[in-house]
């Protein structure tokens, strides 16, 4: 059965690969699974046909036969469970990889998302600058902890896993701020992820959609 995912028709990330369908694309490329993409306008994302698949009106969704999923982390976990390449076979290593998936989405991502909410949606508030400083210090605390744990290793726990895929995807969201570059091993970690052939294929596919929309 053909896998179909949804993505922005006109991505708000400026072609940087930050929209969350990129994570799913990368996972599918890592495990060698073909997929189709259904592009959605912001208007279509609020319409009943999409809301029945994604009740919060977001992307991505994942459809395969009778199975419909939303939330990028859940989708990637499903892909990793069904196809070899993103979770170790050893039970303990597998559990640790899943742990890092949760850490990326539950511990690392919330303050990073808050940075962008404060930086863009609340910039007209009188307390904007002070708030952004507080959020960025919270991010630095988490990055420092992650940096110490990663050390000089290539990946978080042995071989590359879905935990790394999600962690790198989260760190990319803050890369343009320069904060990640304050931690040389984390900057190198993100670069290693971006150098993977599967990542390059996924990014090229997402970028092609952005360019087509920009030229249309």
What does this structure look like?
The protein has 216 residues and is of the alpha+beta class. Helix content is 57%, strand content 9%. It contains eight helices and four strands. It has helices at residues 21-30, 48-51, 72-82, 91-121, 128-150, 162-175, 184-194, 197-215; strands at residues 3-8, 35-40, 61-64, 67-70. It has a four-stranded mixed β-sheet with strand order 2-1-3-4, with helices on one face. Strand 1, helix 1 (21-30) and strand 2 form a beta-alpha-beta unit. It is globular and about 45 Å long. The two termini are 31 Å apart. 31% of the residues are buried. The model has no long low-confidence stretch (mean pLDDT 93).
Features:
alpha+beta; 57% helix; globular; 216 residues; four-stranded mixed β-sheet
Strand order of the largest sheet: 2-1-3-4
Run of helices and strands? EHEHEEHHHHHH
Enumerate the spans where pLDDT stays under 50 for 5 or more consecutive residues.
none
Helix content class: 55-70%
Mean pLDDT figure = 93
Give a count of the beta strands, DSSP E runs of length 2 or more: 4
Radius of gyration: 17 Å
Note the overall shape: globular
Helix segment tally: 8
Q: The biggest beta sheet, please?
A: 4 strands, mixed
How far is it from the N-terminal to the C-terminal residue, by CA?
31 Å
Question: How does the helix and strand content classify structurally?
Answer: alpha+beta
Strand content: 5-15%
């Amino acid at each position: 059965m053909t896998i179909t995912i949804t993505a922005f028709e006109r991505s708000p990330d400026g072609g940087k690969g930050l929209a969350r369908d990129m994570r799913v694309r990368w996972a599918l490329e890592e495990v060698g699974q073909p997929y189709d993409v259904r592009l959605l306008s912001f208007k279509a994302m609020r319409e009943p046909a999409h809301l029945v698949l994604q009740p919060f009106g977001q992307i991505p969704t994942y459809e395969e036969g009778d199975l419909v999923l939303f939330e990028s982390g859940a989708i990637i976990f499903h892909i990793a469970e069904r196809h070899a390449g993103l979770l170790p076979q050893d039970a303990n290593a597998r559990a640790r990889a899943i742990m890092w998936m949760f850490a990326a989405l539950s511990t690392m991502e919330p303050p990073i998302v808050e940075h962008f909410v404060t930086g863009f949606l609340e910039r007209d508030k009188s307390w904007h600058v002070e708030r952004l400083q507080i959020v960025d210090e919270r991010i630095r605390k988490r990055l420092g902890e992650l940096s110490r744990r990663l050390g000089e290793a290539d990946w978080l726990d042995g071989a590359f896993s879905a935990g790394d895929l999600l962690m790198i995807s989260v760190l990319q969201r803050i890369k343009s701020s320069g904060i990640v570059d304050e931690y040389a091993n984390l900057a190198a970690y993100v670069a290693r992820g971006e150098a993977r052939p599967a990542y390059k294929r996924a990014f090229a596919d997402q970028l092609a959609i952005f360019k087509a929309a920009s030229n249309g």
